[in-house]
Specification:
Order of helices and strands: EHEHEHEHEHHEHHEHEHHEEH
Helix content: 40-55%
Strand order of the largest sheet: 1-2-3-4-5-6-7-8
Number of domains: 2
CATH topology of the largest domain: TIM Barrel
CATH superfamily of the largest domain: Phosphoenolpyruvate-binding domains
Structural class: alpha/beta
CATH architecture of the largest domain: Alpha-Beta Barrel
Largest sheet: 8 strands, parallel, barrel
Distance between the termini: 25 Å
Strand content: 15-25%
């Protein structure tokens, strides 16, 4: 049975130690909230942030938004305690940073138990040379989504991180191909310049064109642009309904190719049209809630 579609257009990182920001997130238009224990939290605040994340999950109030905890890596002094706390808190998923080998994923699964969904950060040069193996192990251990970490990847590469991300285009394409090959959701990396609304819109459009499911964000002001870029356009929804309607006609049962409004349409377009409509319906349900 196919899992229900969940909108992940806008995925907002929040420092788990910032109670005020977390409280405000319960009313934001983002699809996902990530309570961050890693980059956004200073070393001397890690324990406090961990306790706050657990308390936020227990308190709830996030509605239909997915709630995810990003832990520190297992190779840090805080990673093991983060995973133990997340296993007890049971958010919608646990995001593991700096996944470079299949063993990183199996180690996380061993500490989280059998059923808690895992998301994986793809953000190291080493990961780029193991993408297929990481995809296969992701399926094995119950990883449901990858998150591209452009900041860390650019740091390792020592490349410029421009709005159009020219040095990262190969990594972006390969990561997307690997995720899709293993039927994983995949989210775009963050845009750092909070005040640059034009740059944000351009990078969101780039990510949508590449085929990401949504974009990770660092500030609530970025939510609207991500939601707009990763929502199907009205014209695309209308065309998808036309394609699905044509293939569903009894006289077209079993046909592989149709001519619809002067365009040649194949079964692959039918499948994509149904996927797009499922996304649109999920977004409508999310916004109604």
């Amino acid at each position: 049975m196919t899992a229900p579609v969940r909108p992940r257009r806008s995925v907002l990182y929040l420092p788990a130690s910032n109670a005020r920001a977390i409280d405000k997130a319960r009313a934001l238009a983002c699809d996902v909230v990530i309570l961050d224990l890693e980059d956004a939290v200073a070393p001397d605040a890690k324990g406090e942030a961990r306790a706050a994340a657990v308390a936020a999950v227990a308190a709830g109030g996030f509605g239909t938004r997915e709630l995810v905890i990003r832990t520190n890596g297992l190779d840090t002094p805080w990673g093991a305690d983060d995973l133990a706390a997340a296993a007890k808190a049971r958010p919608d998923a646990v995001l593991i940073p700096k996944v470079s080998t299949p063993e990183d994923l199996s180690a996380a699964r061993a500490r989280l138990g059998d059923h808690l969904p895992i998301w994986a950060m793809i953000e190291t040069c080493a990961a780029m040379f193991r993408l297929d193996a990481l995809g296969a192990e992701s399926v094995n251990v119950g990883v449901t989504a990858w998150v591209l970490g452009c900041n860390d990847l650019a740091k390792e590469m020592r490349c410029a991180l421009t709005v159009d991300r020219e040095p990262l285009l190969t990594a972006i394409s390969l990561s997307l191909m690997a995720a899709r090959a293993h039927r994983l959701a995949i989210l775009d990396g963050v845009f750092n310049e909070i005040a640059d609304s034009g740059g944000l819109a351009r990078q969101c459009a780039q990510g949508a064109a590449f085929g990401f499911d949504g974009k990770t964000l660092i500030h609530p002001s970025q939510v609207e642009a991500a939601n707009a870029a990763f929502s199907p356009a009205a014209a695309d929804i209308a065309w998808a309904r036309t394609v699905v309607g044509a293939f569903d006609l009894p006289e077209n049962a079993g046909k592989g190719v149709l001519k619809v409004e002067g365009r040649m349409v194949e079964r692959l377009h039918f499948t994509e049209a149904k996927r797009l409509l499922a996304v649109a319906d999920a977004i409508a349900a999310r916004e109604a809630a």
